[in-house]
Amino acid sequence: MGRLHVLTDETVQSRWTHVAIARAAAAGGADVVQYREKRRVPEGVRQETAREIVETLAATQVRCIVNDDVDSALAAGASGVHLGPDDACPEDVRRRWPGALLGATANDVDRALICDALPIDYLGVGPVYGTRSKASPAPALGLAELERIVRAVECPVIAIGSIDATNIGPVLRTGVWGVAVLGAVACHDDPCAATRELRAILDAWRDRNVTA
């Protein structure tokens, strides 16, 4: 599953395409690239973009998952899918796709506990510091509530929500497994360098905790 997930997005910026972000993230050391398309685009376009990302990552160890869209993920040969509360049922997806890397979203501890009982591989929790990538976002979770969720569930938690190199430290101290970032990479002048900086912080944090 990895500890550094990078989300692609063409709505918060217009400089980088989904594929360009995926390529830069892979070069910078991301573990997972999540193709995230919230615009209403034809299914064929969505599947073709997902397929391009999968092909871009084929020579690397980076896995591609698709946000919301199980059919596109399967058609593109992706590694899995990330599901929101209104998306497909994880039990149904797991029956249909036993080997998928499967994530779900939680914005509070009640939802996190529900998701923890589902057949998922990780739990995306946030927005920690808020978000600018959604028209109607959930309220900022904050570090205290994030830590409460981490302690309440067995599933590995991937924190998300305006996380970048300047504020990732307190997030890691809550005990999360890893982080997912969007603007910190997609909106950066150099997405590869931004990913590399986050990778270095995560690796240093891991090494300190292994040797402690």
Indicate the topology.
Layout: E1 4-8, H1 18-28, E2 32-35, H2 43-57, E3 63-67, H3 70-76, E4 80-83, H4 90-96, E5 101-106, H5 109-116, E6 122-125, H6 143-152, E7 157-160, H7 168-172, E8 178-181, H8 183-186, H9 191-211
Parallel strand pairs: 1-2, 1-8, 2-3, 3-4, 4-5, 5-6, 6-7, 7-8
- Quaternary: single chain
Order of helices and strands: EHEHEHEHEHEHEHEHH
CATH class: Alpha Beta
Helix count from the secondary structure assignment: 9
Uncertain runs are none
- CA-based shape: globular
Considering the protein shown, what is the CATH homologous superfamily?
Aldolase class I
Query: Helix proportion of residues, in percent?
Result: 40-55%
How many strands, which pairing sense, and closed or not: the largest β-sheet? 8 strands, parallel, barrel
Looking at the overall shape, the CATH architecture is Alpha-Beta Barrel
Work out the count of structural domains: 1
Can you put this structure into words, describing what you see?
The protein has nine helices and eight strands. By secondary structure, the chain is an alpha/beta fold. The chain has one domain (4-211): Aldolase class I (TIM Barrel), CATH 3.20.20.70. It has an eight-stranded parallel barrel with strand order 1-2-3-4-5-6-7-8, surrounded by seven helices. Helix 7 (168-172) links the parallel strand 7 and strand 8. The longest helix is centred in the C-terminal third of the chain and has 21 residues, at 191-211. It is globular. The model has no long low-confidence stretch (mean pLDDT 94).
